[in-house]
Amino acid sequence: MTLYPCPKGHDSTDPVWCSECSTRMTGAPAAASPGGEICPTPGCGTPRDGHSRYCENCRYDFDLGTAYTGDGAVTLAPVDVPPAQPDPAPAASAPTVAPLDTRRWEVVISVDAAEWEQDVTAPAPIGEPDRVFPLDLAEHLIGRRSNHPEIHPTIVPDERDHGVSRRHALLIRQADGSYAVKELGSTNGTKLNGKFLPPGILTALSVGDSLSLPFWTRVTIRTQP
Amino acid sequence: MFEIKSYPNSFLTLGATRLDALVEVRAQGVVSADPTANLVEGFLIDNSGSMGEPMGGHSRFRNKMEAANHAVSVAIEQLPASSTFFVITFSEEAVLVVPPTLAGTAQKSAAQRRVQQIQPSTDTRMSTAVLLARRTFAQCPDGIHHATFLTDGKNSTGDNTAFSEAVARAKGLFQCDARGLGVDWHKDQLELIARSLLGTADMIPDAEGVAGDFRAIIGGMVEKGVRDVRLGFWSPKVAKIVEVKQTLPENVPVLSSKSEVDARSFTILTGAWADRETREYYVVVEFAAAGDSGDERLAFRPFITFRDPATRQDQTIDGPDVAATWSDDASLTSRINDRVANALGQGELSEAIAAGLAAKAAGNLIEATKRLGRAVQLADQFGNTEATKRLAGSVEIISAGEGTVRVKSAGITAEDRYLEMGGTRTVRARAAQ
Fold it and tell me: Which chain B residue's Cα is nearest to A39?
């Protein structure tokens, strides 16, 4: 039987962990989990699930090596998105199918009191920093959180804006990778680039579009930098 | 077939000898057309005299017996054609009302007609049901053995010893989910079945709920693809596993049911698994001695053993090596893994619910308010909506985030019993915010 010397001076029958004191042998390969990679976020350490782009626990981006920065409470696993490519050329009048939109979209929530008549008892918190939510699911609900009934939107505007309904609008991924918006019959309505959206009808969105929710929530569509 | 991941608190302070880890086991690709994976379902239905009484409130059913018969019929309808089923009623003695039958359309109809004729009798002797179920399952050696047990009352006092013995003899032969209808059953008796026979124990608050509950049980069982799966742990000479608790989908201590394989390893029977099913276990390892700074030592290696339904070969799947590293860097050793924190937090939730209800039963409403308030706060924090729902029956939630509640009534109510039975359910760790 081959014996291996362990750093503590034992003779081990195991080449990786000393069979006597269980210490890792010098020169032994570092422990590897079945998936190989491990999330480096402090306190996480979740093994990478196959080739998933994001950590299933903390949404760390393995491909880019960046931590998740959005602050939406999202419980669903991220959806795999094809790797980013340069923006596709606009399909001006081409009769062919529009090219797949492989850009990754996100929305910016900012405070903008210009669009709606303001509630003087609850003034808009002008100057609040913007918040960013990545669009990585097939559907994103914009609305207020609620325990009764249980509603857990993935995009939550500032809770102080009480003009926002619990189920206000839905952003839905289209077959080509872009998103469309559906107004869900909210109490106060939604404007897209200044015009009221008809409830229940899907309207395609493009990058740069801006949704406005009463009384002071602006939702701007952009691609991830 | 199985994927095992570990989430240890890897870094130990100098002098520390205890390692905490969470082990996640996930079944992957467990789908089999083999007869060993077919469901054999037994319905064990109480037909004691009290089943003939109506329940309070509006109901389609004249009495509990009708509701139970209806629920069994619905569950039979739901069984896939490849499965086998039987029905046992128990009162003074157990009767095999429907013997083991293949779930073909004609057989199902015949069985449903027979089930509709079940009448309430007298007394409740649970041991007779468990023993007859055991004998009946023995006639069907292949397949995933599962029973659904329904009672509305307590076991006959004279039968309790026989009942515990019967359950002990049934261990490993079939799994059983136990349900109490109404409020007159005994929690310990349902839990004896659930804990020993790898099932769940729960309350069905009203007659209308029986069919839905049975449908959920059968729906879960038909998904199962591999039976008699064992979770094992191997540990080196210098480390000993001192605790293993299942923490998902429910908090259950499981170390007491271990069977030793050899001096270094043991296994725990976990029952049948469905494809993509995930369970989590909280493991504590005690080292004989602490290491020096920088030492890295192997603590344990989890593994899964099962008989592959396709090849009929015994298989062992090894999990990752879980090791501890001693360090004098407080920024490393003070780190608690998110998954370990989730398991510990939901353990605290179960304890808070139990302590709160115990205080309420003892008439200490101040303590009950404090403990149940803490439970509401923890349930909210971990997104345990089932716990929140059941808590909302017992207390009026004023602020979930602050844990401010108002206890609805003195004394133990039906809502409290419902909460008590669901108090050990857990949910997966939420994505970090």
Answer: B7
